[in-house]
Amino acid sequence: MKQLKLTVLDREGSGRGISRRLRASGRIPAILYGKISQPQSLAIDAKEIGLLLKEVGDSTAIIEIEQDGREPRLSVLQEVQRDPMTDRILHVDLHEVSASEKINVSVAVHTKGEAVGVKIDGGVLEIVAHEIQVRCLPKDLPSHIEVDVSSLRVGHTIHIGELPAIEGVEVLDDEEQPVVSCVASEVEEEEAAEEGAPAATAPAAAAEPAEK
Amino acid sequence: MPPLTPARTKYRKTQKGSLAGNAKGGDTLAFGQFGIQALGRGYFTGSQIEAARVAINRHMKRKGKVWIRVFPHKPVTKKPLETRMGKGKGPVEYYVAAIKPGAVLFEVSGVSATIAREALRLADTKIPIRCRFISRDEQV
Question: Interface pTM (ipTM) of the complex?
């Protein structure tokens, strides 16, 4: 289990204007919610959350929330909203969890080794499921699920049911769901054809007229 | 390969519409490890999509996998040459994908970051919109 600390501040008010002013002052609006307590609007230092997210990466971590005058609380990162253009963090959702209650979390899949199908047969390793939904106690939460692909041949797939069991962790996704597969690479047959490709003239007849 | 066109459309011709705002969805990597994201807005024609795809595949040789995240749904009409104005809207000339900033256009996986970066740079030269390279490692 990966556990990190995050210092938060209380946030007064909500809405676009307040959030914009908060971002301009170097803080990120956030919210903490869960079954344990009422939702609480928070503000986090932009630098601190940036470093924390870098440390978390694509793994799953328990975040210990520290706030002046309050007991530390446990949470998981539920969502991080980013500006798609600048990658600037806009808002953070934290899901409060109890240390004694099981939680449902998506855990990232990491591959280990180089597949035989890729190394020898020239296939392509395809990660079908980048995340797997699991249920466990916060103390048992794996930071990621490692899948050994070294024996994977072309045309073979590793399904969720074939993954080694992790103690205290129950996988919620379907056992038949593929996680990683090794597929034959697509042979480019149109190499010659593309040279003499006609100009962009879409056949108007291909489009059917309106039914009305 | 002929340019991408819809197999069937509900309406033969459409109005121009608007390209205002940013992409509402399809703005993160969904399948691959690396991708190319639009930073500007504009029309990406079926033949340009095909040209970009070929550029990626050629550089990646037979390795890796490519996903095309956009499709040219929108018909663009053009009046024939030396035609007087009027007499109705011209015939459909080609199809385009209306791209807004943030849209992920292509994704690749199964190749190294260096190869992916170069393949997508070559694809970028075929795309009439300013783009940037993105990778899953940089996204949380």
Answer: 0.72
Residue B56 and residue B52: Cα distance in Å, rounded?
A: 6
Domains and CATH numbers, chain B: 34-139 (3.90.1170.10)
Find, among B40, B33, B54, the residue nearest to B139 by Cα.
B33
Q: Does the CB of A211 have a partner CB in chain B at under 8 Å?
A: yes
User: Any chain B CB within 8 A of the CB of A85?
Assistant: yes
Residues 14-53 of A with CB under 8 A from B: 53
Judge if pTM exceeds 0.95: no
pLDDT for position B42:
96
Concatenate the DSSP letters of all residues of chain B into one string: -PPP--S--SSS--------S--SS--S-SSSSEEEEESS-EEEEHHHHHHHHHHHHHHHTT-SEEEE-----EEEE-PPTT--S-SSPPPEEEEEEEE-TT-EEEEEESS-HHHHHHHHHHHHTT-SS-EEEEEGGG--
Q: Of A160, A143, A132, A133, which is closest to residue A63 (Cα–Cα)?
A: A143
Look at residue A128 and tell me whether its pLDDT is greater than 70. Answer: yes
